[in-house]
Design brief:
With 495 residues, the chain is mainly alpha-helical. Helices cover 66% and strands 2% of the residues. It contains 23 helices and two strands. It has a two-stranded antiparallel sheet with strand order 1-2.
Length: 495
């Protein structure tokens, strides 16, 4: 099984073969690795550098507003405790006061909101955020490649890095001020945690595990997606034991499962601290209900029962014309018109309505779920990765996105490269299929499980859009490049 260490393992009876293939542990080798990683991190930021700003979605401003509120409240509490007079600190002249929480209709992931606010420099433009994205993705890519090909040449690694930076969706999502990049990062991190050997490099393994933990807390959709991938990883470990290729290891099981559990604990803890109630999706928007309406069953069920049941959602459903996205986002929809009490009532009845609608129209719902998942699986591109917005701060301290001209619209060319990169990666995997080892087959199976889980959850809960599958599809070329590097660096055998 491949090693987790970067070219520096010491010789031991259990690691003699791996050590014989690794170069000496020298300062030059360390600097070479560091320089290569830094170049890849910078290369992954090229879309933002061309446009001279990150790409923003309207949710980017929402995360930033929530995070700055949280930090402002915490700052006020600390200042009031430290103040001898008990007076609130005066606001700086000319600086809008951060918004205060009086009542909450809905809220985005608290963990990512805090992260967005903490990395919003300079001037709330979130450049630091995408720099962190680049570093995280670079560390994961390099760690995976070191597992698959510890003796890869610098030239081959540079070619692989160039491919990732130009022919995958990774740079587009690294440059995106949204949590999407962490969906793909979690898949790659779990590939590392599941198949890398347990000896040594515990610090590197802990860093990879922390990515999974944060990814779980970064977005509500990540909770079921990563949960399914973790379940698939455990199944692979059990399959290894059944085949007799590896003994069962509780330590390996823990490295796969504990980061996910820690992410769930983090979500619940932040919910308790923020709202005084334990929830894995605090103050969520009713996307499951909106999707059921969009697919048909929810729409028909509400039309048939609103007059009798008087569901809390019925007035909003009537005003918005029955469309799923419109129910949430339209001018007469929940976000713009619901009070906190009304939104809470809708949340409380959401799953009851969805279950009842599914029972009333089971075949329609099943057919829609399958069709949505298949459509989402193959639908990836860069339509949503627009650089045509900037973040502005309103006088009340809230943040909003505002339309702004792009320097260049490179998405059409980028989309061709993304699809082409995936096609090349899949073609290469098919070409070397007969030479794949058991571990490599297991890696590909777990990768496929991650792609399917992402398509199932996003296709089942939201409108089909290229952004959802594009945020994870970049892992396919990264894995294929790891297989290519392994074969390029494999020593020739004597005839």
């Amino acid at each position: 099984m491949p090693t987790l260490e970067p070219r520096t393992a010491a010789v031991s009876p259990t690691n003699a073969d791996a050590a014989s293939r690794l170069p000496a542990h020298t300062l030059r080798a360390r600097l070479q690795i560091f320089g290569s990683m830094l170049l890849l991190a910078v290369a992954l930021l090229w879309p933002a550098m061309v446009q001279q700003r990150p790409a923003y979605f309207f949710d980017s401003a929402g995360y930033l507003s929530t995070g700055t509120k949280a930090f402002a409240i915490a700052s006020d509490k600390i200042a009031s405790k430290l103040s001898t007079t008990g007076e609130k600190p005066a606001a700086k002249a000319g600086v809008p006061a951060p918004p205060r929480v009086t009542s909450v209709v809905s809220i985005r992931a608290i963990a990512y909101s805090l992260f967005a606010a903490a990395t919003s420099a300079p001037g709330y433009r979130m450049h630091a955020l995408i720099a962190v994205n680049a570093l995280v993705v670079t560390l994961l890519i390099w760690q995976f490649w070191r597992i698959r090909a510890p003796r890869a040449s610098p030239r081959d690694e540079a070619l692989a890095a160039l491919f990732v930076a130009t022919a995958t969706s990774a740079p587009w999502f690294v440059s995106y001020a949204m949590p999407d990049i962490f969906a793909g990062a979690a898949i790659l991190a779990l590939l590392i945690l599941t198949f890398a050997p347990l000896h040594r490099q515990r610090v590197a393994r802990a860093a990879v595990a922390s990515v999974v933990t944060f990814a779980v807390a970064a977005h509500a959709s990540h909770i079921p997606i990563i949960g399914l991938i973790v379940a698939a990883a455990v199944a692979e470990l059990l399959f290894e034991r059944w085949r007799g290729t590896a003994p069962w290891s509780w330590r390996r099981f823990a490295w796969v499962v504990v980061p996910y559990v820690a992410g769930m604990v983090l979500v619940v803890a932040l919910s308790v601290v923020s709202f005084g109630s334990a929830s894995v999706a605090p103050k969520r928007l009713p996307f499951a209900l909106a999707k059921s309406i969009d697919d048909g069953p929810g729409n028909w069920y509400l039309k048939a029962t609103c007059a009798e049941k008087h569901w809390a959602v019925c007035p909003f459903f009537a005003r918005t014309g029955g469309g799923g996205p419109e129910l949430i986002f339209a001018d007469g929809g929940l976000i713009k018109t619901a009070t906190p009490a009304e939104m809470e009532a809708v949340r409380n009845e959401e799953m009851t309505i969805v279950r009842n609608a599914t029972r009333a129209y089971p075949f329609v719902q099943i057919r829609s779920a399958i069709a949505n998942s298949v459509s989402q699986f193959f639908h990836f591109g860069l339509k949503d990765n627009s650089f045509g917005y900037v973040i502005v701060q309103l006088p009340n301290g809230e943040f909003r996105t505002q339309a702004a001209p792009e320097r260049f619209d490179l998405r059409p060319a980028g989309q061709v490269m993304v699809y082409g990169g995936v096609a090349i990666a899949l073609g290469y995997i098919v070409a070397i299929a007969r030479s794949l080892s058991a571990v490599e087959w297991a890696t590909l199976r777990l990768l496929l499980a991650g792609l399917v889980a992402n398509a199932m959850i996003t296709g089942g809960l939201s409108t089909i859009t290229s952004r959802y599958q594009s945020r994870v599809i970049w892992v396919v070329p990264v894995v294929a490049l790891g297989l290519w590097l392994a074969r390029r660096s494999r020593p020739l055998t004597a005839p």
